[in-house]
Amino acid sequence: MNINKSNPLLLHPLNKWMKKKKWSWFPHQIETFHYVRTGSDVVVFAPTGAGKTLTGFINPIDDLIKLKKFKGLHTLYISPLKSLANDIVRNLEKPIKELDLNISFQVRTGDTTPYKKQKQKQKPPNILITTPESLALLNSYENAKEFFHNLKYIIIDEIHTFLDNKRADLLSLNIERLQTFSPNLQRIGLSATLKNKQDAKKWLCRKKPKIVSYENSVLPKIKILESKERIPWSGHMATYSINEIYKEIMKSKLTIIFVNTRAQAEYMFKNLWLINKKKLKIAVHHGSLEKNLRLKVENNLSKGLVDCVVATSSLELGLDYGDVEKIIQVGAPKGINRLLQRVGRSNHNLNTPSKAILVPTNRFEFIEAKAAIEEIKKNNLDKIDLKEGSFDVVAQHIFATACAGQFNINDLYKEIIKAYPYKKLKLNDFKQLINLIQDGGYVLKNYDQFKRIFQLRENKNIYKLVNKRETRKYRMNVGTIIENPMLKIKLGTKTLGNIEEVFIQNLSQGDSFIFAGRVLEFQSMKNNLVQVKRSKSLISKIPSYSGGRMPLSTNLANSVRALLAKSNMSDLYPEQITQWLKRQKYISKIPKKDEYLVEQFPRKKNFYTVIYTFAGWHANQTLGFLLLRGFKEFNYKPLGFVANDYAIVLWSLKEAKEIKTILNLGLLDKHLDNYLEETSIVKRLFRDNAIISCLIERRLPGMEKTGKQVLFSSDLIYTVLKKNEPDHILLKSSYEDAKKNMIDYDRLREILKKIDKKIILKKLTSISPLAVPIILEINRENLSKKETDEYILEDLENEILKEANVLSIN
Amino acid sequence: MFYQLINFGNEEFHAYPDKSLYWKRLNTLIVSDLHIGKSISYAKNKQFLPPYDTKEILKKIFVSLDKIKPSNLIIVGDLLHDVFSTLSLKDQDHRNLSQYMKNTDFIWIKGNHDENIQIEGFKNLTNFKIDKFLFTHIPIKTSLFQICGHYHPKVKISHRGKTIYKTSFVHNEKILILPSFGILTGGLDINSKEISDVLGKKNLSIYPVGQDKVYKL
């Protein structure tokens, strides 16, 4: 489009306000305005600070002013986070109030009071800001059609976070419902910069689809911490660099330290306090903390009342903390997009570059950090893989539809397959999902008298909810986010937050652990409350939250491999890393970009096989299990394996001589089903599926189950079902979920397809330098918790280094 | 099937991995908390559990009866989940049951779930006494040795940093509690208040039930 002509936004009601603020319109705002005005659905890609929120509202506000005193709901704004929704309201309030525009706007989330929600339904605002779950709930009300029939625009904020998960599936189905209610509805998506923009467009847009894109020309300034200390071979806690990190915090006005797991956050926070001689104000922020504690930190952050916040992905999205000067990323970046999102948290100003320092916690991570920086310079982003929609979400949607009134299954099916994730949904599967909601969908028709929905006699295509009470059950179970069983932690009468039940089970009275930045002593567990007191002990277990472990992205993995293959090591790395790699080159080999290095060596009576796949943790974990089976078949007597993002190591009593024969696509085809059956992966996913599809209930008033009990009974259901009805739709659904999300099936398949021609097999007499990190992980995992003392690790490390004959190099 | 020897009240019992207990001297098989028809009773609240539990429980019990051929079968309560449960019993099931009753005396002790339910041809008792042993669903005050059910005991086992739960047989000097013979039945931790109130916390003999074997802790 030629935007040089005249700027139509100069006549926009907001132009006056822009002028007053001495702001000018961005080209992407002009372009979006034009496209939407001429009837297009649009996805806008722009970096933070480029007025994205405003871009979404330009057309709705223009339209509302033209329509004059429009009554009812006009625009829906979907935000991925409740907190972000509140922030949007604050941003929208400013121009609307200052210009005295006659436009009403409100927020509706899980936190909105029932009274307010009721009022909103009676007298809807012009603009409603909400979340995907609240939208699903609104669509389940009988008057949903009236409520939405005049809806003109739906804006999806941060659409890149919605593309590859079950929340996206839920949202896509509900957008199609809105389109049915209001055929003229237009869609506007707001996204961070993506590699596969076309996919986002396909996901969202129906009418004259358009992409509007604005790239920031100012690149962020990212460097790796120049440490004088020895970078450890393995581990993830960055203890070595704590003093240097502290110095970096002192240099900047306000720093956010991002870490990868909640456990790392607690550990980093505690270690910073131990050396906090300057009495800097340091806070910690992660998803398990009690809401009030989190809000307090966020508030202090936006007012600049702290010097540093240690955070997990909980602080990644949205909110504008203008004064953040520096980002420190501790641990592997894992992906380009993620790193950029984090780095973008500093300097919310387009013309000054964001500043970030990466702190690798071990040697492989150093290479990964280096590779990430290279890719950001080339603007080579990660692809977000769109996935086919999950069945369980459709089941939930069918239930919701029934709550809103009787429905025709043919119409519903036609509507569902308009949603991008469900384009390929088979009619037969859909019918099974109808049955699932009706009575569990079992072949054995036992429940005729207890159906939840039933066919009308006069028209078999029309289904109706059996009674009103069921709507309440749907509403208690809405949504696709299933938390692990969590318990509340109480210090005296004060609630500190939630902790995983599995972690608490491993504690005995008197054990100490860190939470919310405090060293706490476990006292007792009663009625799902964990009672703790302050501990004087300095030694503590760290909460081992299972969340937050994400695999290395394929894109970044490829660049790590490319970087590793470069020969000019001494230009790329500090001396200690160069020495490490040179030694590897001398003893074994450094694989080329498309080669798969396999090393084999004897060690302590066993034989070790290390395979460097760079396939990410999920795929490697799967491959490890498959190889274990392959080794058994060849009678190598395998004893175990450990996988990380980069490699897998297996150890066996006999030497795996035929590794080249074993390692190919056949391995996957032959053993995958067995593997899925024997491990608990599908079983665990079945629990999520059973809850999301409303087969079992999350909770009901008066019969609060602990998460543990839900887990238990879903396991039993799984076992019975597997035995009696292996083709049941929920088993199929869980299996598909496993393939899509847990085992990185496609990625593994790609690698195995070509691996047999690219294997470089090295038979060694002892461990290679490259293998040291993963061999160390074996010992870490096999040590009991009480022994994981740093001293013991140190000792162990030295022993292994001696073996590898690399002690001399640093 | 391997069994685990349990010495209780100076008598030998065999604990089987199918969660039944066999008293060899009197050729008596003991099971508890079958909760037949749990799925159908949940279905009336629109929780659609797989409707295969009754079929599987009966199959399990028939397999056991075929193999052991006991003179008596004692069910220590909660044979049925609730009054709806009989709906899940097919005519064929009734016929099969009658067939087995020709050779085995069925002694059905009332549990809290099924005390008010009648099945034709079945008598149910509040409790049942043989020698110095009392069979009762929930233990009562008595000097007799008691064999009961009700609690669905499970034991928490922490080993090498991992924690698992296993359903178990458990007894102290005077009271033995059977695990639930059911398919969709959950469990209660042996350390829970409910069970410690009955058994105490000390000198417990615990027998976790594995896949093909009953263990001893």
How would you portray this structure in words?
Chain A is α/β, with parallel strands linked by helices and about 800 residues long. Chain A is about 45% helix and about 15% strand. Chain A contains 31 helices and 26 strands. Chain B has about 220 residues and is α/β, with parallel strands linked by helices. Chain B has a single domain, classed as Purple Acid Phosphatase, chain A, domain 2, CATH 3.60.21. In chain B, about 20% of the residues lie in helices and about 30% in strands. Chain B has four helices and 15 strands. The longest helix of chain B has 16 residues. The two termini of chain B are about 20 Å apart. In chain B, about 45% of the residues are buried. The interface between A and B is medium-sized, with 33 and 26 residues.
Biggest pleated-sheet summary of chain A: 7 strands, parallel
The overall number of domains of chain A is: 5
Please state the average pLDDT score of chain B: 91
What fold name goes in the CATH topology slot of chain B? Purple Acid Phosphatase, chain A, domain 2
What is the highest CATH level, the class of chain B? Alpha Beta
Strand content of chain A: 15-25%
Q: What is the CATH architecture assignment of the largest domain in chain A? A: 3-Layer(aba) Sandwich
Q: Please tell me the CATH architecture of chain B by its name.
A: 4-Layer Sandwich
Largest sheet of chain B: 8 strands, mixed
Mean pLDDT of chain A: 87
- Give the structural class of chain B: alpha/beta
Tally of extended strands of chain A?
26
Poorly predicted runs of 5 or more residues of chain A: 700-711, 782-793
What value does the Rg of chain A take, in angstroms? 28 Å
What is the approximate shape of chain B? globular
How would you name the oligomeric state of the polypeptide chains in this document?
heterodimer
